[in-house]
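look at this one:
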Amino acid sequence: MEDPEKGYEFGPPERHFCLKSAVAFGGSSTVYEAEHWNRSTKLNGVAVKVIYPENMASCDAKQELDIWKELPHHPHLLQLIHYEKRILDDPAENTNNTRHYLVMQFSRSGNLLRFVRQEGKKEETMSNKGPQQVMSLTSGTSTRASLSANKSKGISIRAARDIMRQLASAIYCLHKVAHVVHNDLKLENVLGFEPEDDQDGPITWKIADFGLSQKVRTDSYLGANSAPTPCGTVAYVAPELISYMDLEPYLEDSVPSHNRPSLPPDMPVFARDMWALGCILYALLAGQLPFMDGIQSRMIRRISNGDYEMPYRLLSDSERENRQGEPNWNNNDNEPEGSRSEARQVLEHLLDTNPRTRWTIDDLCQSRWLSLY
């Protein structure tokens, strides 16, 4: 069946866009690669998220657009380039006769998940075993796991620090300037952009997808009166949210939904993003997520208990000698113990199961390892 959106052109005369092919599909939208023209000059391609009216009417979709429009310009946050609403010419033949187009930068480098996988393949041959299954709370359906169940090496501490500095800078802008909690930070939602004029230069990483983000109506860390909603992807979800989520299909002793309490108004809403950053850091260093498990109920309990194994890369020399069944990476991983201990401190404070003592974005930026300010 021919895609009716393909080839559609829109935008002001001095800057218009032409939809090419669909590159991603979601329950509420479709993302297209599109051509970008400045009058008669063709510019770099863009991505266009098309949201349909029944979804735009929902609170989440409207909230996403509002956040996109108000988002401060930041080099590590994906920016909204243009927004346009389209009403189809013949509404009689189209019940849903309105389309919403959100134009943003197009990433040809892929996301951080792809980067971690590629870097892992450079170090060792990937296992032939199939990927695990993880559960997306946003859709309620099974999706393929992000990373291999087998331990891959990940990237160096220095390379991980470079990426984390970019992400921390972006989250600082979200939390402290925009007063926005992202709610769905994960490897897939961090997009890479290579320099336009120097293909050998470093990749710039940008946080994307604000579909679950929320505006926090206070500058307080506790987020009073923000009415936060538990959401996100289970493998990255903070432990303090577990009790408030619909996990009945995966936990035999889960509290029934009609008896489940509401999130308290003083829940530290920004803390969930910090936990997710900890999961991302772990994946960068270990090549896998910290709580992944083939059995869903066991993974959820591991998250609740903060039960993870410290990445081999962060172990001291003496701990490495005692770790059984791990490859010996000392010969090609020459990070000094001081650097390992600084990165380890960051990881432990981000994966603190207590949201009130978990590091804030200020703590992370001021850490000795990142030293952003």
Notes: The two ends are 54 Å apart (CA to CA). The CA atoms of residues 264 and 291 lie 26 Å apart.
